[in-house]
Specification:
The chain has 304 residues and is an alpha/beta fold. 47% of the residues lie in helices and 12% in strands. It has a 6-stranded mixed sheet with strand order 4-3-5-2-1-6, with helices on both faces. α3 runs parallel beside α8 and α12 crosses α13.
């Protein structure tokens, strides 16, 4: 079963405010250096004048790891713009305001009633470790409670969203004085969770509780697959669990990939080189953005 933390680390850039105050790092069994996957996209049909690099990211990283390679640095320098999932996450107050607007609804049932009775003691333990008041979780919709608890579990590993790939790349393109563009707004990204049916939201919450004991191992497996460029392993880790439900998969992954493909196709009609950095789960498997672009006539090369 896929951990919700794994899903968020792979496909969502939003991190709750608690993530900015990371705990003392724990000792992680992670690879210190590697070559994450990188693709080159070029047009083959009339009108497809642009090209792009596509780089699968992981949104939180341990410190002191080397994921940059000479080939990656050359691609960054050659690119005219950076395209990431969401702009504006550095404004944590605004992000928190948007989260609260979507997350909190009146007359929510108590959080413990949203998991099966056999999991309620485990839920209590997860809440205690999270340092999130239970009354606050009671006010949240189920998707928001699940994200909040999952973020707290990641935070307990000492992982800081400030170490994420997108933030590093955005700072680099700011130094290059080159534009940074986004594929989604914060409202759009959170809206995908907010509009899930309640049954699927409760599946998210159940996943957080059931997989709480393996937070460290789940992150280690994901990170090591990412930094090693092991796309088959990333597919394995990002399939199953809450994404086994076809409607959830369509909402959280496939529909977004289709939307991004439309946006990138329009961008690639004009000259220039884009560097596209999005969560790694969007760039692997049969529903990958590159696979959708290939169906539109683009040549896809895995160059790292």
């Amino acid at each position: 079963m896929i951990h919700l933390r794994t899903l968020l680390t792979l496909i969502a850039t939003f991190c709750l405010a608690a993530c900015s105050n990371a705990a003392e790092p724990v000792q992680l069994n992670t690879v210190k250096e590697g070559k994450p996957a990188l693709w080159k996209v070029t047009g083959t049909k009339p009108g497809q004048q642009g090209s792009a690099y596509m780089f699968g990211t992981i949104h939180i990283l341990p410190k002191n790891v080397n994921w940059r390679t000479p080939l990656l640095e050359t691609a960054l320098k050659d690119s005219d713009r950076l395209i990431i999932e969401v702009l504006g996450l550095e404004d944590t107050q605004n992000a928190a305001r948007i989260f609260s607007k979507l997350a909190i609804s009146p007359d929510q049932p108590e959080i413990e009633t949203r998991v099966k009775p056999s999991l309620r003691d485990d839920l209590d333990a997860v809440i205690d470790k999270s340092n999130i008041p239970e009354f606050a979780l009671n006010r949240m919709e189920s998707w928001a409670a699940a994200l909040s608890l999952a973020s707290a579990q990641t935070n307990a590993l000492g992982l800081d969203s400030g170490e994420g790939v997108e933030k590093k790349l955005t700072a680099q393109f700011d130094d290059f004085d080159k534009p940074v563009e986004g594929l989604e707004t914060i409202e759009q990204q959170l809206g995908y969770f907010d509009t899930l049916p309640e049954s699927q939201q409760r599946d998210m919450l159940t996943s957080v509780v059931e997989e709480a004991a393996d937070t460290k191992g789940a992150f280690e497996r994901l990170f090591n697959a990412w930094i090693s460029g092991d796309t088959d392993k990333i597919v394995e880790l990002s399939n199953g669990g809450i994404l086994e439900d076809p409607k959830t998969r369509e909402k959280l992954l496939v529909a977004r990939n289709q939307d991004w493909t439309d946006q990138l196709d329009k961008r690639l009609q004009s000259p220039g080189i884009s560097f596209v950095a999005v969560g790694a789960a969007h760039l692997v498997g049969p529903d990958a953005v590159q696979a959708m672009l290939e169906k539109r006539g683009y040549k896809i090369e895995k160059i790292q």
